[in-house]
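Module 6 notes. Inverse folding takes a fixed backbone as the condition and produces residue identities as the prediction. Think of it as a translation problem where the source language is geometry and the target language is the twenty amino acids. Below is one complete input and output pair. Work through it position by position during the lab.
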């Protein structure tokens, strides 16, 4: 039986080799193979194929930047075939290497302890923070005292007095007899005209500059409070209430800056349309008085209109003064909160303990070692990915098919190239049929 199988295999191999030489490289060929003898015949069908072939693929995604072979090229084992873009991986590996260095330095510092220079530097930084906190507390206290001095209560009383005075003038004018004095009327015309020209002129530069400087001061205060908040947020071990107080201080500074900006905008606007209308009405009143012979009644009506406009203006100023007083109350509370926050921050800085004087615990060392190990593993993974970005030949053979070009995007598991050993072929049988059997001679 064994001798029969050997003769069949030899016959198939001879027939298959001759067919493979006639076919194109890399193309399977199926044909019958037969072994004859004086006593009978055996026919078998088979497929001619390379002894070894492989559909090569990447294990990582990426963009093809180099195809180093072409179809039909022969390659040796481990020869590079295709390369992917590794710029991002290179940067990631550099970053991972820096992480490893940083974690190793942190571990060594925990084991060896902080140097005297580091301890002294931390103490110096704390002293500087204490000095800055003391200055910040003084600034906030000064701002609170200044706000208390600028109490708008007096402005409310003055606006209320103007309203009452304008109403009294209106009542007196309504009951007063008409008068017509040309000299007085001319003087009134000149005064009203001067007032109108003053309103039409540019706003007072000194008042605008003062408003601008107040806005700059408020912006600087806001910037400083933001720096203090960010410094507190960036420090480890700072209690949550200190961070909340720092955030509240920033909010108060933002409100103050908004108020200062509004005052600056109002100062630069100059006279309102209502102010100009009042001045124009005053001019018309004076002109009417000058021409009282023909328009005494009209001049009186214009005077009444002016007083009514003045009453409206005075009532508007009163409303603004009341609103400013309400804002002032909130501002005082915010400034007082800022003073308290600065005081608490200063106390916290005074009670600060230098952490570099403490010896590291075993748990801290173990955590640092674990972080170092994680960083090393991350770097090792990136190195493996860099190696995987180059597709190499797993064995010596011929490139049968190239499925990618430069610029293509490939995915893991996607076939990009077929490699086969065309110089070593074999016949893989698919069927064996025995027609006759009369025994071997």
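Target side of the pair, the amino acids:
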């Amino acid at each position: 039986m064994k001798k029969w199988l050997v003769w069949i295999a030899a016959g198939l191999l001879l027939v298959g080799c001759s067919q493979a030489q006639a076919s194109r490289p890399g193309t399977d060929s199926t044909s019958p193979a037969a072994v004859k003898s004086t006593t009978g015949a055996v026919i078998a069908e088979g497929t001619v194929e390379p002894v070894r072939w492989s559909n090569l693929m990447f294990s990582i995604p990426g963009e093809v930047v180099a195809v180093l072979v072409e179809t039909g090229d022969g390659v040796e084992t481990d020869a590079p075939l295709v390369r992917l873009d590794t710029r991002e991986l290179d940067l990631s590996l550099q970053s991972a290497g820096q992480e490893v260095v940083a974690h190793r330095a942190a571990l060594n510092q925990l084991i060896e302890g902080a140097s005297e220079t580091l301890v002294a530097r931390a103490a110096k930084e704390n002293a500087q923070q204490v000095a800055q906190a003391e200055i910040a507390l003084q600034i906030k206290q000064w701002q609170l005292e200044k706000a208390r001095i600028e109490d708008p209560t007096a402005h409310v009383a003055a606006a209320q007095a103007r309203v009452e005075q304008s109403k009294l003038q209106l009542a007196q004018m309504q009951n007063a007899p008409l008068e017509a004095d040309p000299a007085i009327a001319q003087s009134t015309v000149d005064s009203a005209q001067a007032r109108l020209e003053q309103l039409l002129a540019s706003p007072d530069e000194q008042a605008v500059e003062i408003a601008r400087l107040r806005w700059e001061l408020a912006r600087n205060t806001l910037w400083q409070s933001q720096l203090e908040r960010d410094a507190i947020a960036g420090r480890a071990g700072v209690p949550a209430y200190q961070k909340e107080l720092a955030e509240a201080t920033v909010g108060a500074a933002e409100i103050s800056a908004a108020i200062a900006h509004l005052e600056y905008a109002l100062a630069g606007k100059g006279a309102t349309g209502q102010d100009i209308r009042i001045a124009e009405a005053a001019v018309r009143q004076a002109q009417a008085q000058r021409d009282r012979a023909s328009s005494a009644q009209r001049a009186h009506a214009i005077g009444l209109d002016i007083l009514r406009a003045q009453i409206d203006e005075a009532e508007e100023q009163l409303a603004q003064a009341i609103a400013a007083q309400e804002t002032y109350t909130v501002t005082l509370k915010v400034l007082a909160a800022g003073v308290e926050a600065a005081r608490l921050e200063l106390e916290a800085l005074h009670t600060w303990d230098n952490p570099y004087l403490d010896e590291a615990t075993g748990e801290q060392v173990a955590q640092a070692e674990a972080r170092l190990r994680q960083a090393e593993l991350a770097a090792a993974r990136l190195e493996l990915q860099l190696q995987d970005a180059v597709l190499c030949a797993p064995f010596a053979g011929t490139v049968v098919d190239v499925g990618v070009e430069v610029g293509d995007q490939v995915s893991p598991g996607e076939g990009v190239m077929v490699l086969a050993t065309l110089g070593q072929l074999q016949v893989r049988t698919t069927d064996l049929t025995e027609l006759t059997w009369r025994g071997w001679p």
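Reference fact for the lab report: DSSP finds ten helices and eleven strands in the chain.
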